[in-house]
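Worked example

This section walks through a single chain of length 215. The input is the sequence exactly as stored; nothing has been trimmed or padded.
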Amino acid sequence: MKIVEDFRAHADTEKAKKQEAYLRDQFKFLGLPTPVRRELSKSFLKEKAQEKVIDWQLIDFLWSEEEREFQYLACDYLRKMKKYLEATDLPKIYQLATTKSWWETVDSLDELVGYLLLSGKIKSPDILKWSVDENFWIRRIAIDCQLGFKEVTDTELLSSVIRNNLGSKEFFINKAIGWALRDYSKTHPKWVAHFLSENEEKLANLSLREASKYL
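Given that input, the structure is written out below as tokens.
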């Protein structure tokens, strides 16, 4: 596949070492900075978008490749094609989120789940189910999938998914709670302040600190 060849042809060993260290040496990298990756993939993504249907075989292939840039390419592709997502794709997103999981890919995938929710293709019960999943990355997506929703945020859902995760010792969950509340505080600071007041004793210090940033 030409895009794979192009990525590998621009590999930079020194940059790769730094990228690998940043993600705690969990993944191999080619050493492509984000601007380089996006420039290399621009034509490829434009061409694939003309198909107007999501190529899940491509995504599975990219996710199976060793170097992390290929998972990033899969995420870039899915974001570009998100309007073609359907409720039946939710299990596929789940599989991606629970395979080679770390915050950078998971946080790309929560935008896709958010799109499905906002478009009405999935409903609140789907998100509530994810909010109590045994995998904390799935719970993180449930908490953060409404980022950027502003006035159309479903506050009942937001409150429920956060309450379902109060008392967690997991850093990435408590960080997600803080981010979700901080983001919504830009739209409705009084709601967030009230939520913090009601749940102060159960919220982790990290969540409180993040959520209070703009209050």
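What to look for: The mean pLDDT is 98.
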